[in-house]
Write a structure and sequence with these properties.
Layout lengths: L15 E4 L2 H11 L7 E5 L2 E2 H9 L3 E5 L10 H6 L5 E7 L11 H8 L2 E5 L7 E2 L2 E2 L6 E5 L12 E5 L2 H14 L5 H17 L5 H13 L9 H5 L16 H31 L11 E2 L4 E5 L3 H11 L11 E2 L16 H7 L2 E5 L6 H14 L5
Parallel strand pairs: 2-4, 2-5, 3-13, 5-6, 6-9
Antiparallel strand pairs: 1-10, 7-8, 7-11, 9-10, 12-14
Helix pairs in contact: 1-2, 1-5
């Protein structure tokens, strides 16, 4: 692959549409495909609540299928078993950057006229047998949020791989979506620049708490508003494009993707070697998969104790996904999920933690993370 190959599916082109968030890109894809009242969309029961919400905003109903404990991605056989005459789309998520196994889903969707959508929020730059994720289905969306492989603070991209869908989305993009206001765009640009310049792993817990506090006060634009996490109604200013004034920032972030992926894979390689030396199971992918390694997931024997120790020691340790519809503050039944629908996901969400791989993680930080795990102990996927 060339140096630009990882970003190729997402570079400016007639089939790529930038939005303010990845979830908005998903909503736009579903709308462009005609998904609406009375329809069903299959969604893995191990995702963010805003994904299920985007489905609901179209008038359709999310139907959840369980994950495979080894891959932490949706089980394609379970998804296939849930397809009915009302199924209009199937969502496949590449969790933590690891490409998901597709099984018979591409053939089934093609034969039955069902839209196959890839959730690439974690996985820009991941490949399967040399094919980039985002090009495996009819359409795909990606997130540009703070911690993602391509980061612009807030942002999302939709990619469509069918001419009819591209034309429908282009019409929708021009008529139903608007650019953010100038102050809003400038604030987002400044926040993204500050994040890249100043963020360090040792600041993780303090930065997380400060960011959530300022978001709640409305002083910064958070990834999700409280209303979006708790209310099934579409929030104000949801249907927004990325914004023309920040386009240079997006172009620069896409240009950095090859070096970002090299770094993440090197860090993940250190974690993989450590786990294999100790017999700790790790996330698996399909044959030919090369992960983007957004995060490195593990299952902990006692997650609350491990997270508490990490906070005390100022070790960056994530808790995605702490519920089948992350974050756990949401009432999942409001968005169509009830405990027991996806028993593997229910169990995994009680145990999962994830290690950082972002460009701020240098060799010294890797040693600190591994030293912390050696002292506290951890299970495995």
């Amino acid at each position: 692959m060339t140096a630009r190959a990882p970003a190729a599916p997402w570079l400016p082109a007639p089939d790529v549409f930038p939005f303010l968030r990845g979830r908005v890109a998903l909503y736009a894809i579903l709308r462009a495909a005609g998904v609406g009242e009375g329809d069903e969309v299959l969604v893995p029961g191990f995702t963010c609540v805003v994904v299920a919400a985007a489905v609901q905003y179209t008038g359709a109903r999310p139907v959840f299928y369980d994950i495979d404990r080894r891959t932490l991605n949706g089980d394609p056989a379970l998804a296939a078993a849930l397809i009915t005459d009302r199924t209009r789309a199937v969502l496949v998520q590449h969790s933590f950057g690891m490409p998901a196994p597709l099984g018979d889903l591409p053939r089934l969707c093609r034969e039955r006229g069902i839209l196959l959508v890839e959730d690439c929020a974690h996985a820009m730059g991941a490949v399967v047998d040399g094919r980039p994720v985002g090009t495996l289905g009819d359409a795909a969306f990606a997130s540009l949020q703070w911690s993602k492989p391509v980061t612009t603070g807030l942002g999302g991209l939709a990619r469509v791989n069918r001419p009819d869908l591209r034309d429908a989305l282009a019409r929708l993009y021009d008529t139903e979506f608007r650019d953010p206001s100038l102050p809003r765009e400038m604030t987002l640009a400044l926040l993204a620049g500050a994040y890249r310049r100043f963020y360090r792993p040792s600041l993780y817990w303090r930065a997380r708490e400060t960011y959530h506090r300022l978001s709640a006060l409305g002083l910064v634009q958070g990834s999700s508003s409280d209303a979006e996490l708790l209310d099934p109604a579409m929030p104000p200013r949801y249907r927004e494009r990325f914004g023309r004034r920040r386009r240079g920032q997006l172009d620069a972030a896409l240009a950095r993707l090859p070096s970002v992926l090299d770094h993440r894979r090197r860090v993940a390689g250190r974690y993989l070697a450590w786990c294999r030396d100790r017999g700790v199971p790790v996330q698996e992918g399909p044959p030919g998969a090369v992960s983007a390694w957004l995060r490195f997931p593990l299952l902990a024997a006692d997650r609350p104790a491990l997270l508490h120790a990490a906070r005390r020691r100022r070790v960056e340790l994530g808790d995605w996904f702490n519920a089948p519809l992350h974050p756990a503050v949401a009432d999942p039944s409001v968005f169509g999920y009830r405990e027991g629908m996806c028993p593997v996901a229910d169990d995994v969400c009680r145990r999962i933690v994830n290690l950082p791989t972002h460009p701020g993680v240098d060799d010294r930080e890797v040693e600190r993370v591994l030293g912390f795990l050696a002292e506290t102990g951890v299970g495995g996927v």
